[in-house]
Design brief:
Layout lengths: L12 H31 L1 H5 L5 H32 L2 H21 L3 H4 L2 H31 L5 H9 L1 H19 L2 H6 L4 H4 L1 H13 L5 H8 L7 H8 L1 H10 L1 H20 L5 H29 L1 H23 L4 H19 L2 H7 L6 H16 L3 H12 L3 H20 L8
């Protein structure tokens, strides 16, 4: 029997602010670590770790390494979800942050192919797998901590704290690479400059841990523990009792993560290698798009508190489908103003689906297996949609010679997720 979460005392305002900060800062650090890998895969990993291949093949190999991390995310979702439902949200959030920090600093210290040969790409893949394990459980815990602490009429708004970590982490990652690209020479960047963003992660992890250690455990989990209502095998229970919700939640997230990784990982490679645009210009465009993404996340989450999660999610899903073709048409003009228009509209669509997601997913699963349900849904949607999106986009353009093929790929994944969103029922469970 579920605990009566409405009877759980509301979190005091001061602690609620710490909870929002812990979710936002922690996920920002996590996604900064994750995105510097994505950026480096587009810019430098091909020459550093796959130098025995041609430049084009090296880029494909680097993007494949990026995808490997996604393969570990469902396993991370299962592991973190199980223990998050068994021993608490807070402990798993601290563990995920530490694991991500260790893996990211490890990449920054990793010798290149020229130094240790084939061990370089092997170790790169192993470190990426650790990043994937961490990311698989990070989002679910951060989202639930924010939503389960929040008052009923502000769960969308507070749930967005975990969501803004994605564009905020991207802004930090792109900003660091922009800084390094402009303070060192091209040769210095290739030799050691690319490592600095990875090593800087240790500072951010320290900040994230400081904030998370000050946060109290979720009141919903405390109620589960006090009433001895925790599931013994939450992963089994959620598959048995909420299989439909798992399928729909996972599928609804495919387009967001696929199109998101086309924006944040493929676009940089496409713009520099195909359109011959400057790296600085593209980094600025991506940073502007990330700011637009962040703002639209917060705005759409607050909107969802008034009109419901599904309507907002649905509007964003439609926008991503209809904008897929105009996006590349505008981008291929190579004119800065149209580059900005292309990414701003696209990221508004991403934000409209991402903003209400924490509260939507939390409400789809009962508290005793909520961490497992939310984490597995998020991780599976991420691996199916985003895991190999940059690789697929690169391969499609190489095979067809036109960005229209990438647009059609975006339309297909968009329609798949749109169908799932239509089928989702507004959550009936109280958080």
């Amino acid at each position: 029997m579920e605990p009566n979460v409405r009877a759980v005392p509301e979190t005091d305002p001061r602690q609620l602010r710490w909870v929002a900060a812990a979710s936002g800062v922690g996920t920002t650090v996590e996604w900064y670590d994750y995105f510097i890998f994505s950026t480096a895969a587009a810019l430098i990993f091909g020459s550093q770790f796959f130098s025995s291949l041609s430049p084009a093949s090296g880029t494909l190999a680097a993007f494949a390494t990026l995808g490997v991390g996604f393969l570990a995310r469902p396993l991370g979702g299962v592991l973190w979800g199980h223990w998050g439902d068994r021993i608490g949200r807070k402990r798993m959030l601290i563990a995920s942050l530490m694991l991500m920090g260790v893996a990211t600093v490890g990449v920054g210290l990793l010798p290149t192919y020229g130094q240790i040969g084939v061990w370089a790409p092997i170790l790169l893949v192993l470190l990426r797998l650790l990043q994937g394990l961490s990311a698989g459980g990070e989002w679910g815990g951060a989202a639930l901590m924010a939503v389960e602490h929040a008052p009923p009429d502000k769960r969308g708004m507070y749930g967005s704290a975990s969501q803004i970590g994605v564009p905020a982490g991207l802004i930090l990652a792109q900003g660091m690479f922009f800084l390094m690209s402009n303070v060192v020479t091209t040769a210095q960047f290739a030799a050691w400059g690319w490592r600095i963003p990875f090593l800087f992660s240790i500072v951010l992890v320290g900040v994230g841990l400081f904030v998370r250690l000050k946060v109290e455990e979720s009141p919903v989990f405390r109620a589960l523990r006090d009433e001895q209502a925790r599931s013994q095998v939450p992963v089994v229970d959620v598959f048995r009792e909420r299989g439909r919700e798992l399928l729909l939640a996972s599928t609804s997230f495919i387009a967001n993560t696929a199109i998101g990784y086309v924006f944040l990982a493929y676009l940089l490679s496409y713009g520099t290698s195909v359109l011959k645009l400057s790296r600085n210009l593209l980094l600025i465009v991506i940073i502007v798009g990330s700011v637009s993404w962040l703002i639209s996340i917060v705005a759409s989450a607050m909107w969802s508190d008034r009109v419901g999660r599904k309507p907002v999610y649905l509007i964003g899903s439609v926008l991503m489908v209809v904008w897929a073709v105009p996006f590349f048409v505008l981008f291929d003009t190579k004119r800065p103003i149209w580059l900005l228009v292309a990414v701003i509209v696209l990221t508004v669509g991403l934000g409209l689906t991402f903003g209400p997601q924490s509260a939507l997913f939390a409400g789809m699963f009962e508290p005793r297996y909520r961490y497992s349900g939310a984490s597995i849904s998020y991780a599976v949607g991420a691996v199916v949609g985003g895991g190999f999106a940059p690789l697929i986009a690169t391969a499609l353009y190489s095979a067809t010679g036109t960005s229209l093929s990438v647009s059609l790929y975006m339309v297909v994944v968009g329609l798949i997720s749109l169908a799932a969103v239509v089928a989702i029922r507004e959550p009936r469970t109280s958080v």
